[in-house]
């Protein structure tokens, strides 16, 4: 297992996220607008908050407790739910890019923006995930992909290994093609194409400014 | 003692800093350029990292351990040095603005940018602080101000109370006249006037963007 994170592919921004995180959801929605409206390219990558914050992982870069090595359905609701969602997400990534994004966003919305009167999805609930897959993916291919749990866990491990090596600590984190990488948390959903491009331009300017900005964080 | 932080004065940005912090030093240098070259107004305020991170202060907004209530010279080097530096800083603030800034910057530079071959200043060393005061202030007035330790501690307490109420957690933190307030950490010293203005514009745009950006933080 390599300890060196893969460099982002040429021109592609790696987007690390956890389905548990409401800020990751906003980041995914932003990236989806940039992808659809402005031709930008993002790769969907998984980072686990449960793993990152686990008491057995005091050294963020060298975890000893890995989510991908846990038994399905075990541990806290967060642990079991995020592992289940990640494995479904990895299965979706085997399909074409638009379908994989549609499923990923559908799962995020079911968790963080459920329709009025509908409870948020329980990420452990395979029946509910299956319904989202049927709405967005080739459901038969998704079902077959899910049967290869070992392969899905290996793919998840690669994401978790890369995010650990890079020092990712929260989501969404964007890893730009130029190597800059930072957590980016914003409170308001941005879906208007012009506003999305402006926000992205602002974020990347922060990361490329000659002062080498390391942190901007509101006091609360 | 009021628990409500004073709003920033009209058009004035409050700059919270700790002499211990190398990033606060960069923030002060930036603000000084903006002040001298671009007519912006900043108020020098104190925030204590020793107090903020103290084990007896788990609730950042409601400290029970206050630096301004400690015996001079007691505690760790950080504690004793920062209290000593803050009290000198408060004494300097009784003089005119340019002199107070000159002293504050001289103290920061002696700590974080000593001349080659010269050790960094020991903030507990009153003789060294006196030398800096003689180079930048009306030294007699400074000496008289230092005699009113109770008044200096009361002024320091007001800064520490306001920073606690505002949720300041690190330095430099800038509290803009519009109410936005955020920690701003950058690695490279910025002293060129155009670059300083560009950096400040970028920082304030982050805080006023419609997405309500809460955090940009590099993974390491």
From TrEMBL, chains A, B:
Source taxon at top rank: Bacteria
Domain DSBA-like thioredoxin intervals: 14-180
SUPFAM superfamilies: Thioredoxin-like
GO molecular-function term, one example from the UniProt record: oxidoreductase activity
Short name of one Pfam family: DSBA
Name of the protein described by the UniProt record: DSBA-like thioredoxin domain-containing protein
């Amino acid at each position: 297992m390599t300890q060196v994170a893969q460099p982002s592919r040429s021109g592609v921004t790696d987007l690390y996220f956890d389905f548990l995180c409401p800020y990751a959801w906003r980041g995914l929605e932003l990236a989806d607008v940039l992808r659809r409206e402005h031709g930008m390219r993002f790769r969907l990558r998984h980072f686990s908050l449960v793993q990152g914050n686990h008491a057995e992982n005091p050294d963020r870069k060298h975890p000893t407790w890995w989510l991908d090595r846990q038994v399905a359905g075990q541990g806290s609701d967060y642990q079991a739910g995020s592992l289940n969602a990640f494995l479904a997400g990895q299965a979706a990534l085997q399909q074409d890019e638009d379908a994989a994004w549609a499923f990923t966003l559908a799962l995020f919305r079911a968790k963080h923006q459920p329709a009025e009167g509908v409870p948020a999805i329980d990420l452990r609930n395979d029946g509910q995930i299956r319904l989202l897959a049927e709405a967005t993916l080739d459901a038969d291919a998704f079902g077959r992909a899910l049967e290869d749990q070992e392969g899905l866990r290996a793919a998840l491990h690669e994401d978790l290994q890369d995010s650990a090596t890079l020092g990712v600590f929260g989501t969404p984190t964007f890893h730009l093609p130029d190597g800059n990488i930072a957590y980016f948390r914003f409170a308001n959903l941005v879906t208007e194409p012009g506003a999305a491009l402006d926000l992205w331009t602002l974020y990347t300017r922060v990361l490329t400014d000659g002062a080498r900005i390391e942190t901007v964080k509101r006091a609360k």
